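User: Run a structure prediction on this.
Assistant: Running it now.
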Amino acid sequence: MRRAIRGAVILSIGIAFLGAVAYFMILGSMAKCSDEKKLQLASDDGQYIATLSERNCGATTDFATVVTLREKNFWVFSKATDMFFAEGRHSNYGVRWVGRRALQVSCLDCDGSRLILRERQWRDVSVTYEVAPGH
């Protein structure tokens, strides 16, 4: 009797563990997004990198136009910070450095999309935006 109970407990724990692994694998695969780089520019002194990308998080979510800033360094990993995020696919957009520490982001066809994020400052970089009128 004791042996049967121990076997049932071990079997239950094993099934629960496998179920948890499967759940997190499925959840993890659904949450992954890919960024397709459209434009990447270094600041005048080469210290910072601005990247404009189209983000795709899968069939159940819309595309998004994203601008990130990060330090340029020689390490493998450099954490980028989202500065601009507009839902939807866009074609009339751009990024340019207008000064040593000034970035300009334009998205002139963002009128039909939702502008989720427009950060104006990151470290010592100021960011200005040119978007569709009324937004």
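The chain has a mean pLDDT of 84.
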